[in-house]
Sequence to fold (160 residues):
Amino acid sequence: MSIGNISGSLAAYQYTNKVQKNSAAEKTGYTDVKEQENQRFSEVMRKKAGDVDIYERKQEDTFKPSCSETVLQAYDKTLKETGIDPFPMNRISTALVIHVEQGKEQLSSDFLGNTVESAIAMAKKILERIYNPISPPMHPEFVAEERRFYERFLDNLNAL
Fold:
């Protein structure tokens, strides 16, 4: 019987202690302090996420062509300078349209070719289509960004 009393007393003590802690937390505003700490942490994390370089975030999601290292450097430089992804997931790019017209089912990573000259030729072909579209573009704002990207890319290629 004494074992039952000890365990019974222990349970009563634990319950009383817990109630006292909860009431003390309410009196001191412990829960408010904890909420404020959580809010500050969330704010800091949101700010950190916002501070990440936009180029780095876009670079992870950007389609990367398979081409010579020199062309890839010009391509990466253009991405960084313009901040424009010429192959966003929600748009059909001019490069894709030209690639399909050439009999390919989808855009492959070798659309720029293996040389600076082939990349220049493709950039010129894309710009020619942007300047002289077969039909009016469905998303003129994207076409304007695409034009800026390929003009800058062509400048970077010509500078090599």
Observations:
- The helical segments are 2-28, 30-51, 54-61, 69-82, 94-101, 116-131, 140-158.
- The chain has two domains: 2-51, 54-158.
